[in-house]
Design a protein that fits this description.
With about 260 residues, this protein is of the alpha/beta class. About 35% of the residues lie in helices and about 15% in strands.
């Protein structure tokens, strides 16, 4: 794993003309050198607990195919999970799935606040800025889509679903995406699986989507389908078509500008 500093965010595709912003919170498994390995071995630092396997390549392909800017996380979610507020117990997890994270154990409030300020704050400032810029460019409310992956087996339980479409309070865009995907018949797709808003995973959707009058959608793809770059790119080509149809057919958000 290449070392890096506290580079919390990467922004690409800013010339994109679509009224859409893509976000990939868990794109990277990088850990700043001053944190060492967080006490984890190489297996754990490469596993799903550290990042969303395949999500970065998938998100970049969607950015290219849909002509939309992309905001990606630059650090492992074990440093700070940008899809969580500081108050969430798993924003800086001391244990994730079957791994303890010694470098996150017994952090005092000052240490937690320092992680928050160095990772969460610049990341979400960037998302807000890119969304505002894209709305000025397009002259209308943009849509927000976040890109994630999930494991085929979680805590010993196999997951049959292959693609999940999640929402916060407004299900319109997620339902449109599910309908478009089911009509194509290529993958086993479901609404609000393998997670839902009840699991605390829609923080970014709520903050930069619905609270700003924007349609918002979270895509979860089973990571065995995007485990290598070629497979992730193919999935990006596939989902770009699904998303294009869903974005065209879903009703506008209640608070969206005309």
């Amino acid at each position: 794993m290449a070392e890096c500093g506290w580079t919390a965010v990467e922004i690409t595709g800013t010339a994109g003309a679509a009224p859409l912003v893509l976000v990939c919170e868990h794109a990277s498994r990088a850990i700043p050198p001053e944190l060492g390995t967080l006490g984890l071995d190489a297996e754990a630092r490469s596993a799903h607990v550290a990042w969303d396997i395949g999500a970065a390549v998938l998100a970049r392909r969607l950015s290219e195919r849909l002509d939309a800017p992309l905001v990606s996380g630059g650090l492992s979610r074990l440093v700070y999970d940008c899809n969580r507020p500081l108050s969430a117990p798993d924003s800086i997890p001391a244990r994730s799935e079957r791994w303890d994270v010694p470098g996150n154990r017994d952090l005092d409030e000052a240490a937690r606040r320092a992680r928050f300020e160095r990772v969460h704050e610049p990341f979400h400032a960037a998302v807000a800025d890119v969304c505002r810029r894209q709305e000025r460019r397009c002259g209308r409310a943009i849509d927000l889509v976040t890109v994630h992956s999930f494991t085929p087996v979680y805590l010993g339980v196999s997951r049959a679903v292959e693609i999940g479409f999640l929402h916060h309070a407004d299900a319109a865009l997620a339902r449109a995406a599910l309908a478009a995907e089911v009509a194509r018949g290529a993958y086993r797709a479901a609404l609000d699986e393998p997670y839902s808003a009840a699991d605390g995973v829609t923080y970014t959707l709520a903050r930069h989507g619905e609270s700003e009058g924007r349609r918002a959608l979270m895509i979860e793809v089973r990571n065995d389908l995007i485990a290598d770059d070629e497979a992730a790119a193919r999935m990006g080509d596939h989902l770009a078509q699904t998303l294009a149809r869903a974005l065209a057919e879903a009703p506008q958000a209640a608070g969206a500008a005309p």
